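ok posting inputs for the iron/sulfur cluster job
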Amino acid sequence: MKASSFLYLAAFGLRTILFRREDPILGTVILTDQCNLTCKHCSVNNLRGVLYPYARVRADMETLYAMGVRILFFCGGETFLWRDGTRTLRDLVREAKAMGFLIVNVVTNGTFPIDLPEADLILLSLDGDRERHNAIRGETYDTILENVRRATADNICFYMALNQINKGAIRPVCEAARDLPHVRAVSFNFHTPYPDTETLALSRAEKAACCAEIGALMEEGAPVFNLRSAFPALIEGGFPTPCRQCVVMEDGKLSVCGRCVDVPGLCERCGYFFVAEYTLLFRGNVRVMADMLRTYLKYI
Ligand code: SF4
Ligand code: SF4
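and the output
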């Protein structure tokens, strides 16, 4: 991260904590709900089957920038499917940088060639070893690993949502993140029990066991892009939701925190690590602050 970006974000954090402000800093633009996969835990693929047009996406980016957002995510569906005429995902990333977003990240399922060195981070879903990943995401493991090996930059971060199928496959994903040259780290979430996927959710004891294993792997030197200081709240579910500093734009509609904010009762069972990390940070939790400084400076 550039020093100027770091100073900007640090000043934002201090203002938010000291004056209890709720301005957003992290924003997501949904590019499409089209996806080439139908993962077992997913509730958002192919609902409308649209690629949002460039003008819509650009307007959503401008709205977020005007609100103060400076960390931008492009998300799907599958982001690498997005295009409008000759414009592709790469053009959007370049435009976002030119507009002044300080960090521009892309979320992908990794089944398309990964040639996007302009992105700060590519969050790529890997949900276990071959057997468990494929049980969740179809026969995609080998394609994804081949794409990671052929990637044109070292800006990949694995993204693993822990659920009943893959809770025993934390180590292989940490080892893949450690050993593959284009991968910087792995970032974990717990499965958030959207309607129809509730049976995949982990119990409190299972979450505790996962956090203990992740913590032990961090001590062994595994590159984990999460804050250990937030684990207790993630296990107990005792963190404030939703995250007011995070917003999402989809087709001109703004949601605070996530598109899931309208699902009754879901926020109380939220499994997204970023929500715990950000809400604790902006409440002034000193351990989370120190942890975030160390972790973000290491991986971004
Ligand atoms: S790749 Fe992502 S959007 Fe597509 S089905 Fe899987 S979880 Fe859903
Ligand atoms: S806190 Fe609520 S809106 Fe935010 S990510 Fe979790 S479930 Fe979604």
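notes: The longest strand covers residues 183-190. The chain has one domain: 3-299.
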